[in-house]
Amino acid sequence: MSLAAKLLTGMLIFCFPLRVFAWNWQTKITVVVKDQTLEQVCALIEKEYGIHFLYSPGLVNLSEKVSITAYNQRLKKVLEALLCPAHIRFARAGEQIILLPPKKQSITVNGFVRDAVSNENLIGATIYDPITKQGTITNAYGFFSLTLPVDTVNLFISYIGYQSKQLTVTDNQSGILQIQLPLEGNLQEVVVHPSSSPLQEQTQMSKMSLPNTAVKGMPRLLGEVDIMRTLQSLPGVNGGMNGAGGLYVRGGSPDQNLVLIDGSPVFNSSHFFGVFSLLNANVVKTTDLYKGAFPARFGGRLSSIIDIATKEGDMKSFHGDAAIGLISTKFNLEGPIIKDKTSFMISARRSYPDLLIKPMLVQDDGLGRDGDFQAFFYDFNLKVNHIISPKDRIFFSFYKGDDFLLLEDKEESKNTQGSKFQLGWGNTIAAIRWNRVYSPKLFSNVTANYSQYSFFTQFENKYLKIDSVNLSNISGKYNSTMATAGLRIDFDYRPMPAHTIKYGAVATMHYFKPANSSFEDTESPVKPLDTLNKGMRINGVEMSLYAEDEWRMRPNFFANIGVHGSMFVVEGRYYYSLQPRLGLRYLLPGNWAAKAAYTHMNQYIHLLSGSAISLPTDLWVPSTQRVAPMYSHQVTAGIAKTFEEMYELSLEGYFKSMYNMIENNENTTIFNKDVGRWDEHVTVGKGWSYGAEVMWQKKEGNTTGWIGYTLSWSNRRFPGLNDDKTYPFKYDQRHNIELVLVHQLGKNWEVSASWHYNSGTPYTMPVSSYGGIENPSPWEPSTPTTIDKYSEINNFRGRDSHRLDVGITYSKQKKRWLKSWNFSVYNVYNRRNPYFYVMDVDPVSMKRYLNQITILPILPSITYAVKF
């Protein structure tokens, strides 16, 4: 090759290939075009400078026309001027420029959903995007956060009983939204509605939500609207003896239920020995019952969580209601302190059964005029709600409720010169909460609360000793107190629609003063008992951390993954627990949902019961050095579906194992024996419960209601009891059926009915007895006694229980108020259901027989109420 040819080849290699292989973002180019498409401009750059573009015509649109004049400008600057206005991204890959479709920008919409009239937060309202099919629900404080693409046009907000609303979302959407939903003009009473979303779209299983209308629609016992009795109408929930005495959920005992009122725990959830609920139903906004699959944010109990939210008060206008019935009178008032800024809600209720019972006692028992009889309960609620700023809100709530019974007889009989008996118990709750929105995706709630439960009884009996004119006196006192003070912080973080993350921390101080008693008989040589100043006072500290994530892993596969870690410090002993929680939901063809869950729960406090029925005398005691905390494992699986947006079907099976439960190991009574440390007189054992629940429910229309069926087993085993053999729990019931119907008759009339059926519960009965043994005493006449022999614990089953309750409500709207009459009949066909059984002696034949005690026969009631 000649020298000239070599020089020419070198010049070509130097000039042309450099433009193809040696470019970078700082390479200078010149582009001058007018009204050319981006595709043509890219082709021009490729031709002139050898810079190749790679893209997919189906994803990147280069048909937009552009004009540009760029002389000797940097390559990156020219491409930004050309492509960025068209939202086209670019990147270098080797020696090529890759053109990418626009990155979908997102916007986070957040705010509160409230009642348009009262400005009350709406819990569980649905926010839904029909285009992306993404959605969320408001939390316990009405807050929501949803991250969506900017091209989302409309969101739909809905809540049961309210008019739906459409919200237009714009690119520059900012700030905390305040969405107000008006009530439906033709609102019908609703019975049960878990949430606004279909049942198969909820990952949470073993949960039921009761709006206030569900409770008000039920038949009433003696005119009282009752939350706990409504919960007893749900599958998996047993009301105990004849529907009174507590809640027994999936084979658990009453102490294994965590009852929360605005986040504060309650340790006795009933009035009048379990016949009526602790709380006036008119102040309740929603009630959530968790029977299993517990989210990680809940801890401290094994069997259920009952989360009750009360009304917050109307911020716009004053209104209230009042009612008078056969057994109680109540009123509620709410309104603004500062309009649209501060509101209050106040409620009070007082019963008067003594006015009804006292005449019967005078006639039947000869209660003298100088005697006295009182029996009543009362409760009081106060709540204040203040908006500090659009991001901050503060709440204060207070509850006080007490029961009291007094029996006094000053009449003289053969030996008795008068007697007096008093009994009382009650709860006190106070809480302050602070809500704050830190960012569109992060919400927090801080709660400080105090809860106390106390019980007392005292008696005095004056009598004449045999062959003496001296007046003797027997007197006794007993009291028990427990209290907790806690601080809790909860965070709700929603980074994207596929994740809802909750995490937080709790610290609680427990104080126990159980079984403090004194007893004295002035004529007895035995030293008086006095433990009032040396009772077993114990303090404990409980701390916990939790985190959970509601995660949409696939379009049809969802998971709730969480962990709850806790520690309990008592008497120098440290107890630790790490409790994993897992809930799964898979959408099957035909819109069926298959669900499964596993939960591990820990409980650091126990209820020491001294009888076959749940009474206020039962002792709350903590775990100690001798008695470890209870814990359980529960596995649940089931299917669920909503039909025609009106009918819901759910079927669940469960197995629960429980450990470190306590039971008395001897026949001691807290009233007549100085038991010292209670944990020296109990035995620790295990329990198992398993079964299946099915529920068919109609949510809308003139006729609403549900039918539920439960098949269950519940067993216990304690070392040293029942020859170490397994025996049925005292509320083991094989079959349970609940049928509830509410029908709207025209504009003014509503009819409701509920039918309940329970299999017989087990009791411990003697198999033989021995008589004729004397028990001489220097200050009492000799009396024959009977010694019973027992074979096994709970060796006898009582009769099956069933009853029908009906109610009719007539409402009429007046100019300034709404009046209503409610007529209810409890136990319509007067079924003599057993409350408990005792061994009695026939006074004629002197033979012993088993006597069934029934406390709730047919009971009609009438209630008049006004709402203004």
TrEMBL record:
InterPro entries assigned to the protein according to its UniProt record, in alphabetical order: Beta-barrel_TonB_sf (IPR036942), CarboxyPept-like_regulatory (IPR008969), Plug_dom (IPR012910), Plug_dom_sf (IPR037066), TonB-dep_rcpt-like (IPR039426)
Keywords: Cell outer membrane, Membrane, Receptor, Signal, Transmembrane, Transmembrane beta strand, Transport
TonB-dependent receptor plug domain residues: 225-301
UniProt-listed Pfam families: CarbopepD_reg_2 (PF13715), Plug (PF07715)
Mode of membrane association: Multi-pass membrane protein
One biological process term in Gene Ontology: siderophore transmembrane transport
SUPFAM superfamilies the UniProt entry points to: Carboxypeptidase regulatory domain-like (SSF49464), Porins (SSF56935)
Protein name, per record: TonB-dependent receptor
Domain of life per record: Bacteria
Compartmental location: Cell outer membrane
PANTHER family: HEMOGLOBIN AND HEMOGLOBIN-HAPTOGLOBIN-BINDING PROTEIN 1-RELATED, TONB-DEPENDENT OUTER MEMBRANE RECEPTOR
Organism this protein belongs to: Chitinophaga silvatica
